[in-house]
Specification:
- This protein has twelve helices and 20 strands.
- It is α/β, with parallel strands linked by helices.
- Residues 12-326 form the FAD/NAD(P)-binding domain.
- It holds the Pfam family Pyr_redox_dim.
- Residues 348-453 form the Pyridine nucleotide-disulphide oxidoreductase dimerisation domain.
Length: 462
């Protein structure tokens, strides 16, 4: 509730949280001459830059180079013994992050927005009270309000887990040591990226996943090839298990599984999802409702239950990718201006940055058959792509699903080197509504990984 002594500052746009969608919108409208306040607790640039995409992919780059160096002799090179220097590794990651944080900070100030460092909570519709990081408080009301507070790592409710100070996707990147034995609870995208990364850095890694097989949302053939690649690189994967309890024994952590097995590790990484940052926002005062998990409820225009109040990015329950958050920005920007842009029908790519990496867009084979589509399925081993052979990176499998009658590309899964780059070629064809024959017969430069699309769309298995 607003105190009668409070001075309420009115602005055109109030953004609570500076993630990808919110910060981009704030800068855009500020440059256009609007009065904009963006409140950020202190993570300049948002989760992606500070503790997610950018630092993790910086370390993925290091882990891939470690694998290339270990296989250098196959490329005619002798590089000597590989050593991971923890100090240099940390410096590399922190340097990349610091550069991008500095760039974002300068862009914020140059845009003309009012960047407020502090913690906000709602006191009325479209109105927040801000406890400033350097002391004092402000009360700000926006003609339009965007909630963009993101998510934080989830701690599973496993007895004893909290007591052993488990790592999560943020704390593991502080790189205080490379654990000799690392147990990863959760076999999703985050867990697998870190598992493969730390295996390259020298850890003995075990992934524990409750699902009966790895990546159950992917087709089984793709998941099986990925699991085999991980196994070849020293990642042990145990599926169909749950952790019953965790305890520390002297210098080690003991994980007791439901089936009675016991796993011993030096560190545990809890990688089982993320929770929305909404608990302390006092959203009731703003007329904003959340779902049972705490994510802000929005419609397909990203509007909340309160007038002129929007939510974007992870906190709105959008798929937790920065590229989705960026599209949320486009939607809300259009709708604040009176448009009717929607999230319905978005073609969203997925990328898993293991080595080889998995890139997917559209329907899986299983999803297409469940939907009743009459389909053709193509599969191509990556070793069939000449460019893969020149790099001696021949592990992986490409797969495409096509409508048998319309020749429309319904989806692809590309497991192999540079797959996230090649995926955009297919996604563009899908946006344009092209038949698969355009990629089958197109003149694609040789030797490139994208050239493999010519062969993929002639390799029918069904």
């Amino acid at each position: 509730m607003i105190d009668s002594q409070d001075v309420v500052e009115d602005v055109d746009l109030l953004v609570v949280g500076g993630g990808k969608a919110g910060k981009t919108l704030a800068m855009d409208l500020a440059r256009a001459g609007r009065r904009v306040v963006m409140v950020e607790r202190g993570m300049i640039g948002g989760t992606c830059i500070n503790v997610a995409c950018i630092p993790t992919k910086s370390l993925v780059t290091s882990s891939r180079l470690a694998r290339r160096a270990a296989a250098a002799q196959s490329l005619g090179l002798s590089l000597g013994k590989l050593e991971v220097d923890l100090r240099m590794l940390r410096s590399h990651k922190e340097g990349v992050v610091a550069d991008m944080v500095d760039l974002n900070h300068r862009q914020f100030l140059d845009s003309g927005m009012d960047l407020v460092l502090g913690t906000a909570h709602f006191v009325a519709e479209r109105t927040v009270e801000i406890d400033l990081n350097d002391g004092g408080r402000r009360v700000v009301r926006g003609a339009d309000v965007v909630i963009n507070t993101g998510t934080v790592p989830h701690l599973p409710s496993v007895p004893g887990l909290a007591d052993v100070s488990p790592l999560n996707s943020e704390t593991i990147m502080r790189l205080e040591r490379i654990p000799e034995r690392l147990a990863v609870i959760g076999g999703g995208y985050v867990g697998l990226e870190f598992a493969h990364m730390f295996a390259a850095f020298g850890s003995r890694v075990t992934v524990l996943d409750r699902n009966p097989r790895l990546l159950p949302r992917e087709d089984a053939d793709i998941a099986e090839v990925l699991a085999a690649c991980l196994g070849e690189d020293g990642v042990e994967i145990i599926t169909g298990v749950t952790v019953k309890e965790v305890a520390r024994d002297e210098d080690a952590v003991r994980l007791v599984l439901e089936d009675g097995r016991v796993l011993v590790a030096d560190d545990v990484l809890a990688a089982s999802g993320r929770d929305p940052v909404t608990r302390d926002l006092r959203l009731d005062a703003a007329g904003v409702r959340t779902d049972e998990r705490g994510f802000v409820r929005v419609d397909d225009t990203l509007a909340t239950d309160a007038p002129h109040t929007w939510a974007v990015g992870d906190v709105a329950g959008s798929l937790q990718f920065t590229h989705v958050s960026l599209d949320d920005y486009r939607i809300v920007k259009a709708n604040i201006a009176g448009g009717t842009r929607s999230t319905t029908g978005r073609l969203i790519p997925w990328n898993l940055f293991t080595d080889p990496e998995l890139a997917r867009v559209g329907l899986t084979e299983e999803q297409a058959r469940t939907a009743g589509r009459d389909i053709r399925v193509a599969k191509l081993p990556v070793k069939s792509v000449p460019r893969a052979r020149t790099m001696r990176e021949t592990r992986g499998l490409w797969k495409a699903v096509v409508d048998r009658n319309t020749e429309e590309i319904l989806g692809v899964a590309l497991l192999g080197p540079d797959s996230s780059e090649v995926l955009t070629v297919v996604q563009t064809a899908m946006w344009a509504g092209m038949p698969f024959t355009r990629l089958r017969d197109g003149i694609i430069a040789h030797p490139t990984m994208a050239e493999g699309l010519n062969a993929l769309f002639t390799s029918w298995v069904d």
